[in-house]
């Protein structure tokens, strides 16, 4: 019993120290340019030839001190081999995030760190994207696609949607983000793009995506004795974004238009990987794929921000993995326990059994029943390789 208590103490102590170290390393706080709208106007004025020069928030931590403190943690005190191995992988993952943040805006240096942390699309991923692009999207003149909701109206709808969950969170506005909404995990904050007017379909997508999954896993994550559930397991982006888009599907809000948007992100990341500049990736989307120029700009910005951010291809690969996982009859609730990854399901269950973690308190409500009625979307998702 004394040995078990010693191991539990070591785990708790190391987890607490990691929690303190990672408070400031939420990548999305640093990689979003603060001058997107100005650079968009300059780029359009140049006839799509002069690449934007983005500026980024200042880093507010000592990178050398952070790296040193991560790698001097006494993991050898954790006698449970399985848990010790998990913490080793987590430390390497967080170290990779620090390297990403410290090189934001430094071109290839950031790009190579992004590759190490998020990978790049395979040829099959690109083929999957092209397969989706063969399908005709819905008629965008339909009422559900019309921009009708102001930022204040959207905030009200988010609050009303969130009433179905027994938790509270912050909402703030930003005019310096490429996405139209995102959740900041560390501050339990939903950030809305104040430059955007929202459509009914976007509200259906975003409530289920941002609140129904990202905020749900944020709130579940803080309930565990171990803070790693809150800050994130290695490679959690693919699983978390897959769960979020799957919530769009289960709630009946996923459209072919939305699937094509995710496919364009894969195409854009592949363009980046092949060495294309911002303007070349933009022209590929705008000229070759007939994407409206504002949408082409924002997708290109998402991919080229920081110096080359490859993360966005994972939305489509994650969706396919979660779709197959669900249809194989497996329980999604274990993946809602926090910012966790599909490949760590056995580790999560092990931690729960050992008393170091809890079952998910909040469950994504769209997962209760499948409300998708679009047979074409099912055909597409079943046939992705």
Automatic annotation (TrEMBL):
GO function terms (MF aspect): metallopeptidase activity
Biological process, per Gene Ontology: proteolysis; regulation of nitric oxide metabolic process
InterPro entries in UniProt: MATCAP
Keyword Transferase: no
Pfam families documented for this protein: MATCAP (PF08014)
Keyword terms: Hydrolase, Metalloprotease, Protease
Keyword Protease: yes
Cofactor: Zn(2+)
Annotated protein name in UniProt: Uncharacterized protein (TIGR02421 family)
């Amino acid at each position: 019993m004394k040995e078990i208590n010693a191991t539990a103490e070591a785990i708790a102590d190391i987890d607490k120290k990691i929690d303190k170290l990672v408070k400031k390393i939420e990548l999305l706080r640093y990689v979003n340019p603060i001058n997107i709208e100005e650079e968009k106007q300059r780029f359009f004025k140049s006839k799509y030839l002069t690449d934007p020069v983005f500026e980024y928030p200042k880093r507010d931590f000592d990178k050398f001190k952070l790296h040193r403190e991560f790698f001097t943690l006494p993991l050898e005190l954790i006698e449970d081999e399985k848990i010790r191995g998990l913490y080793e992988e987590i430390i390497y993952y967080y170290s990779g995030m620090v390297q990403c943040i410290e090189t934001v805006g430094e071109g290839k240096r950031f790009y190579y760190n992004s590759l190490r942390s998020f990978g790049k699309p395979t040829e099959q991923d690109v083929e999957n994207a092209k397969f989706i692009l063969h399908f005709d999207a819905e008629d965008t003149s339909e009422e559900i696609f019309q921009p009708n909701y102001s930022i204040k109206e959207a905030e009200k709808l988010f609050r009303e949607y969130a009433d179905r969950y027994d938790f509270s969170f912050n909402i703030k506005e930003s005019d310096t983000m490429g996405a139209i909404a995102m959740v900041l995990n560390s501050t339990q904050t939903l950030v809305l793009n104040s430059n955007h007017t929202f459509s009914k379909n976007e509200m259906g997508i975003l409530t289920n995506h941002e609140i129904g999954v990202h905020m749900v896993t944020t709130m579940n994550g803080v309930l565990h004795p171990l803070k790693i559930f809150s800050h994130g397991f290695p490679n959690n982006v693919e699983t978390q974004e897959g769960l979020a888009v799957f919530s769009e599907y289960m709630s009946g809000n996923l459209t072919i238009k939305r699937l094509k948007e995710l496919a364009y992100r894969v195409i854009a990341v592949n363009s980046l990987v092949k060495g294309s500049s911002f303007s070349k990736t933009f022209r590929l989307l705008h000229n070759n794929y007939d994407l409206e120029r504002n949408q082409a700009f924002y997708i290109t910005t998402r991919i080229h921000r920081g110096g080359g951010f490859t993360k966005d291809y994972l939305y489509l690969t994650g969706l396919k993995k979660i779709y197959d996982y669900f249809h194989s009859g497996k329980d999604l609730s274990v993946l809602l326990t926090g910012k966790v990854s599909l490949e760590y399901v056995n580790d999560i269950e092990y931690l729960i059994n050992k008393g170091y973690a809890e079952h998910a308190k909040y469950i994504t409500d769209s997962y209760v029943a499948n409300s998708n009625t679009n047979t074409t979307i099912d055909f597409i998702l079943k046939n992705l390789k």
